[in-house]
From TrEMBL:
GO molecular function term, any single one: ribonuclease P RNA binding
Gene this chain is encoded by: Pop4
Quaternary structure, from the entry: Component of nuclear RNase P and RNase MRP ribonucleoproteins. RNase P consists of a catalytic RNA moiety and 10 different protein chains; POP1, POP4, POP5, POP7, RPP14, RPP21, RPP25, RPP30, RPP38 and RPP40. Within the RNase P complex, POP1, POP7 and RPP25 form the 'finger' subcomplex, POP5, RPP14, RPP40 and homodimeric RPP30 form the 'palm' subcomplex, and RPP21, POP4 and RPP38 form the 'wrist' subcomplex. All subunits of the RNase P complex interact with the catalytic RNA. Several subunits of RNase P are also part of the RNase MRP complex.
4Fe-4S found in the keyword field: no
InterPro entries xref list: RNase_P/MRP_Rpp29-subunit, RNase_P/MRP_Rpp29_sf, Rof/RNase_P-like, Rpp29/RNP1
Protein name in the entry: Ribonuclease P protein subunit p29
Location(s), subcellular: Nucleus, Nucleolus
Organism: Climacteris rufus (rufous treecreeper)
Protein role: Component of ribonuclease P, a ribonucleoprotein complex that generates mature tRNA molecules by cleaving their 5'-ends.
Length: 199
């Protein structure tokens, strides 16, 4: 009896839902095909990925993460780093050959990592900086930290200073005022071929 009620209900429901369909077609649908009613599943809420939080700038300063300990401030310790840097630049520039085009090498050096390079301050608005030579240990947005042969750690601002880098007889000049970027940002920056040359 219940099955008969169900059958009557389904037929009546289909007739109401599809008034244009003939009784024979409805009957055919019931006997040959399954009736699929539309179902809209609930959208699952997207789980937000938890970002791994690093240290803040204040925490890094408090932990002194970027400070070089006094016992580590020795020029000789960083000479192997300089040798690695020289090999890195040679590989980057496919060997610094005498016939290499200076502007091509210059363009690559602008985006290269300078940690380990020996630089000299050649010009400066502050005369006391001129002549400082050493290995770059750290590069920040506004300053270079350089270790000299006298085992002294110097913090030299980029602004208003010109630095020279020499490798295999090729000398390149870095105008610090145009170099006010972090090393990671500089690698993605497009430098203009011609610019004003000033301190």
């Amino acid at each position: 009896q219940d099955s008969e009620k169900a059958k009557t209900f389904v037929q009546a429901f289909l007739k109401r839902s599809m008034p244009k369909m003939k009784d024979e077609a409805i009957q055919d649908m019931l006997t040959r095909k399954a009736v699929v009613l539309e179902h809209y599943p609930k959208k699952k809420a997207k789980q937000k990925r938890k970002k791994t939080k690093g240290f803040t700038a204040k925490q890094r300063r408090e932990l002194r993460l970027f400070e070089i300990e006094p016992e580590q401030q020795r020029y000789a310790i960083f000479l192997p780093l300089h040798e690695l840097w020289k090999q890195y630049i040679r590989d980057l520039c496919h060997g610094l050959k005498p016939d290499a085009q200076p502007h091509v090498i210059q363009g690559k050096l602008l985006k290269a990592d300078l940690h380990g390079a020996i630089v000299t301050v050649t010009k400066s608005k502050c005369p006391s900086y001129v002549g400082i030579t050493g290995i770059i240990l750290q590069e920040f947005k506004h300053v270079f930290k350089i270790i000299t042969k006298e085992d002294k750690l110097k913090v030299v601002p980029k602004l208003n200073n010109v630095f020279s880098v020499e490798l295999d007889g090729f000398i390149s000049y870095i105008y610090g005022s145009k170099f006010l970027l972090r090393a990671s940002e500089r690698s993605a920056k497009k430098f203009k071929l011609k610019g004003t040359i000033d301190l």
